[in-house]
């Protein structure tokens, strides 16, 4: 009996230790919450406004009631928030505007409730410094006749609230990389419940999610969004990120987009970006237009690196080392089916002579608006128009600076 009690006690302690990395909120009684979620709303609608904060990486949200379900983005009113609490304004002049730009269904409190992605404007109704959507939308309007498509592969890592990779031994490391990519099994796949819940949430919300898989490092996963045309790429990826943060919150686990979450011989996290234009997708697209596009990208390698993480390339410097399936941040390269190249041409594209290419340089924490903007600008605008400066007024009015 004593031995049995000790065994049960050891098991209990192991369970408690295993739960220690999960947030306290995740351990609340969800059945009680569901009792309230099933209450009728009296015909009214909850709308959650989502925006990017002053760090350029964090997401914020708050909710209001509308008297009826909005049928389009135009039915959702502008709102405001305290920018001094989101690194976007000083307390003496803190009001910021939320401008709805994309509407999605709410998978957490269900229909008729909505999630709405917003641009942020300052007190003078000019874009906030972290609002890269305004510039991106300007470029996408200029190149819209090219029907540019993007697909972005968002890698991410799951952490416990103790900032230790989810599922890793408390004092040590898991087996070396090798058995984890696209893996199955409790000893190889950590956090699949989160991944599958996020996938369903995206489908319900209307996010254009393409797929998902376990990545090379344990507790690291990837989801893909696209193909999306123009500005929609950034809208859908940012909302997919918000949904993943919310799902992780429910499970009590932390999502990190750090490009190199673990030092050493562990893969980093990127946001590989696939791109094509109408002529690339047509017969003969590879021989002429894809090669032309990649040549242009090579000439502006340093400019792209500056915009491929929110810290001007400093985050990617830890990741793009030329090891762990990356190219060197200092060099530009292309290759068919080469995952150590800056630009990878998929093998089937090389064989068929048409399709898309993959830019493997963007970091996991990149702003998709900045990435897609600079790619479209480099590939499709005259070099004399590259880096052309626009005033904030021109951003909003859609006119070039005179």
Which helices and strands, and how do they pair?
Layout lengths: L1 H18 L10 H8 L7 E8 L6 E8 L12 E4 L12 E11 L8 E8 L11 H10 L6 E11 L32 H14 L3 E6 L5 E10 L2 H20 L2 E3 L14 E6 L1 H4 L3 H15 L1 H7 L6 H6 L14 E3 L6 E3 L1 H6 L4 E3 L8 H13 L11 H6 L5
Parallel strand pairs: 1-5, 11-12
Antiparallel strand pairs: 1-2, 3-4, 4-5, 6-8, 6-9, 6-10, 7-8, 10-13, 12-13
Helix pairs in contact: 3-11, 4-5, 7-11
How would you describe this structure to a colleague?
It is an enzyme of class 6 (ligase). This is Glutamine synthetase. It is found in: Cytoplasm. Pfam families: Gln-synt_C (PF00120), Gln-synt_N (PF03951). GO terms for molecular function: ATP binding; glutamine synthetase activity. The chain contains twelve helices and 13 strands. A hairpin with a 6-residue loop joins strand 1 and strand 2. The strands form two sheets. Strands 6, 7, 8, 9, 10, 11, 12 and 13 form an eight-stranded mixed beta sheet that branches. Strands 2-1-5-4-3 form a five-stranded mixed beta sheet, covered by helices on one side. The protein has helices at residues 2-19, 30-37, 133-142, 192-205, 232-251, 278-281, 285-299, 301-307, 314-319, 347-352, 368-380, 392-397, and strands spanning 45-52, 59-66, 79-82, 95-105, 114-121, 149-159, 209-214, 220-229, 254-256, 271-276, 334-336, 343-345, 357-359. Mean pLDDT is 91; it is low at 4-20 and 390-402. The chain starts with a helix and ends in a 5-residue tail after the last helix. With 402 residues, it is an alpha+beta fold. Helix content is 32%, strand content 21%. The chain folds into two domains: 40-130, Glutamine synthetase, N-terminal domain (Ubiquitin-like (UB roll)); 139-397, Creatine Kinase, Chain A, domain 2. The longest helix has 20 residues, at 232-251.
């Amino acid at each position: 009996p004593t031995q049995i009690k000790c065994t049960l006690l050891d098991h209990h302690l192991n369970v408690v230790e295993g739960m220690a990395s999960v947030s306290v909120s995740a351990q609340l009684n969800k059945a009680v919450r569901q009792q309230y979620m099933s209450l009728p709303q009296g015909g009214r609608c909850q709308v959650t406004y989502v925006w990017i904060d002053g760090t350029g990486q964090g997401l914020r949200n708050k909710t209001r009631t509308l008297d009826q379900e909005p049928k389009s983005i135009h039915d959702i009113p502008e709102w405001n928030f305290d920018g001094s609490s989101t690194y976007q304004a000083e307390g003496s002049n803190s009001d910021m505007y939320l401008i709805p730009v994309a509407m999605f269904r709410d998978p957490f409190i269900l229909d008729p409730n909505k999630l709405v992605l917003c641009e942020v404007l300052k007190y003078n109704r000019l874009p906030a410094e972290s609002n890269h959507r305004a510039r991106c939308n300007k470029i996408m309007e200029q190149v819209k006749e090219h029907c540019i498509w993007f697909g972005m592969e968002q890698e991410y890592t799951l952490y416990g609230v103790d900032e230790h990779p989810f599922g890793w031994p408390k004092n040590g490391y898991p087996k070396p990389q090798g058995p984890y990519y696209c893996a199955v099994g409790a000893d190889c796949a950590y956090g699949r419940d989160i991944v599958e819940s996020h996938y369903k949430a995206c489908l319900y919300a209307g996010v254009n999610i393409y797929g998902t898989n376990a990545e090379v490092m344990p507790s690291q996963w990837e989801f893909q969004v696209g193909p999306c045309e123009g500005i929609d790429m950034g809208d859908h990826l940012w909302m997919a990120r918000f949904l993943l943060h919310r799902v992780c919150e429910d499970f009590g686990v932390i999502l990190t987009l750090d490009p190199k979450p673990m030092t050493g011989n562990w893969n980093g996290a990127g946001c590989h970006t696939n791109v094509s234009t109408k002529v690339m997708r047509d017969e003969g697209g590879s021989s002429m237009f894809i090669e032309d596009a990649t040549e242009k990208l090579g000439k502006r390698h340093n400019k792209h690196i500056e915009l491929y993480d929110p810290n001007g390339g400093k985050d990617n410097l830890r990741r793009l080392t030329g090891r762990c399936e990356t190219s060197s941040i200092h060099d530009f390269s292309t290759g068919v089916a080469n995952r150590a190249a800056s630009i990878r041409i998929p093998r089937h594209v090389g064989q068929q002579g048409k399709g898309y290419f993959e830019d493997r340089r963007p970091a996991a924490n990149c702003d998709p608006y900045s990435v897609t903007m600079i790619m479209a600008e480099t590939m499709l605008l005259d070099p004399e128009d590259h880096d052309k400066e626009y005033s904030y007024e021109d951003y909003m009015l859609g006119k070039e600076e005179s």
